């Protein structure tokens, strides 16, 4: 993506190229190539080596946004040693031995539930001579979803939707999902006992806790009914009766001795995370002649607050050279939230970008943010890109109204500010870039005139 210019390319070009580089680096095929290799029957997984001839079967099971591409990549690595497999994803991939089941995100549906049940059945069919490679990624909390006995799918969907709209963070949401599921919170690994299980995790959560990614299907149980009930009562006005009844009747699922024994043959490897994307984006910025600085990979909170803060740092950078002299790129990752109170259409990264316009008071600054899975919130946009020209002074009132109503999508769409990647086949959380050029740089305006839509690409 490098450009042959006598001076660094414009902030707009740099922002898009940095985001694109981050997504490319987190592609499952690239990640699997970097972390898994096979020499004959010897399989190496992130430094852990297995002789595939020691197993009568090698099976791939899992789910998430990246699970389809992970399955295709694992087929290529394993070759004839692969027996079969099933994964569920919303981004299909072509495979021969692994069944890639279509699912829906962000709310679970019947086909998610049915696929998850079939995956659990396949895990239960494993024996002590089976190697299970569990392909787990962000999005798996919804896609790999089988409510526990006694809980209806409708109730599970109602609670999930309510928590997503409430502004609860992913840790709180997954505390509930783990307690209400038969596949999460170690459920997949328990079903596979006594098989050897290796979790291959593409993380979309701050801190890369394997118990949180996809709600931890291969990680020893940590959820308790008490914790789940506390989250539900904090964020929801009403809880479905079947969920209350199930939580009341379940004992705390903290690991007992026999529970710990079930995980003796389980290891988990995070093979890609937010830093995978951030490092690639930083390298891309450097190639363009911009100095990169990663602010943090752990930024959460309300998206609009985060957007204004990022833009303010960019303005400071351009005005004073603090914390970097331009041209520079400030990068961050993590996952912000939106507390929705209405019927607006948008997503956290769109709201992040729209709020940033409140602080951009001069040319030379571009602010962009995307969800690396390509779907921000429940929209078909990955996020948005904004600059000084995005909103005119007379449009500021309308912009503030769009923020109040959490209706960023149509407002940004009208101003050609959405970034549309399509489903990317990966998910390593949000990726944001604040690009600072020069105040007298008019190349962004020339690019805007040269292309009808310079902010959209097909990934």
Automatic annotation (TrEMBL):
Keywords: Kinase, Transferase. Residues 438-459 are annotated as: Disordered. Residues 15-247 form the MOFRL-associated domain. Residues 329-430 form the MOFRL domain. Pfam families: DUF4147, MOFRL. GO terms for molecular function: glycerate kinase activity. GO terms for cellular component: cytoplasm. The keyword Kinase applies. Residues 445-459 have a biased composition (Basic and acidic residues). PANTHER family: GLYCERATE KINASE (PTHR12227). This is Glycerate 2-kinase. The lineage of its organism: Archaea, Methanobacteriati, Methanobacteriota, Stenosarchaea group, Halobacteria.
């Amino acid at each position: 993506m490098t450009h042959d210019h006598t001076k660094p390319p414009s902030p707009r070009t740099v922002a898009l190229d940095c985001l694109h580089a981050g997504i490319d680096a987190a592609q499952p095929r690239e990640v699997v190539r970097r972390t898994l290799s096979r020499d004959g029957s010897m399989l190496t997984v992130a430094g852990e080596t297995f002789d595939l001839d020691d197993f009568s079967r090698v099976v791939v099971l899992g789910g998430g946004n990246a699970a389809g591409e992970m399955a295709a990549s694992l087929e290529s690595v394993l070759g004839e040693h692969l027996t079969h497999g099933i994964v569920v994803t919303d981004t299909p991939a072509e495979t021969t031995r692994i069944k890639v089941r279509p699912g829906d995100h962000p709310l679970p549906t019947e086909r998610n539930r049915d696929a998850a049940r079939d995956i659990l059945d396949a895990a239960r069919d494993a024996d002590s001579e089976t190697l299970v490679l569990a392909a787990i990624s962000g999005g798996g909390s919804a896609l790999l979803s089988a409510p526990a006995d006694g809980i209806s799918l409708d109730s599970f969907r109602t609670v999930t939707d309510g928590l997503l709209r409430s502004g609860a963070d992913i840790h709180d949401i997954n505390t509930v999902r783990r307690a209400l599921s038969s596949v999460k919170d170690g459920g997949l690994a328990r079903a596979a006992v006594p098989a050897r299980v290796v979790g291959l995790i593409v993380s979309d959560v701050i801190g890369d806790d394997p118990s949180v990614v996809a709600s931890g299907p291969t990680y020893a149980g940590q959820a308790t009914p008490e914790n789940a009930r506390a989250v539900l009562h904090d964020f929801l006005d009403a809880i479905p009766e079947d969920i209350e009844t199930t939580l009341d009747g379940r004992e705390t699922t903290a690991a007992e001795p026999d529970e710990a024994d079930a995980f003796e043959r389980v290891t988990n490897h995070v093979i890609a995370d937010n830093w995978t994307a951030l490092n690639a984006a930083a390298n891309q910025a450097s190639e363009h002649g911009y100095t990169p600085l990663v602010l943090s990979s752990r930024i959460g909170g309300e998206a609009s607050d985060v957007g204004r803060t990022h833009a303010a740092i960019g303005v400071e950078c351009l005005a004073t050279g603090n914390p970097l002299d331009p041209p520079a790129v400030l990068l961050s990752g993590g996952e912000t939230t939106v507390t929705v109170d209405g019927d607006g259409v948008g997503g956290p990264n769109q709201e992040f970008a729209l709020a940033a316009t409140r602080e951009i008071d001069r040319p030379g600054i571009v602010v962009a943010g995307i969800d690396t899975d390509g779907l921000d919130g429940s929209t078909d946009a990955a996020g948005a890109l904004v600059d000084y020209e995005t909103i005119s002074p007379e449009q500021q009132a309308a912009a503030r109204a769009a923020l109040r109503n959490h209706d960023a999508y149509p407002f940004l769409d009208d101003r050609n500010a959405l970034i549309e990647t399509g489903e990317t086949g990966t998910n390593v959380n949000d990726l944001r870039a604040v690009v600072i050029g020069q105040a007298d740089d008019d190349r962004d305006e020339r690019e805007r005139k040269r292309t009808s839509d310079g902010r959209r690409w097909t990934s």
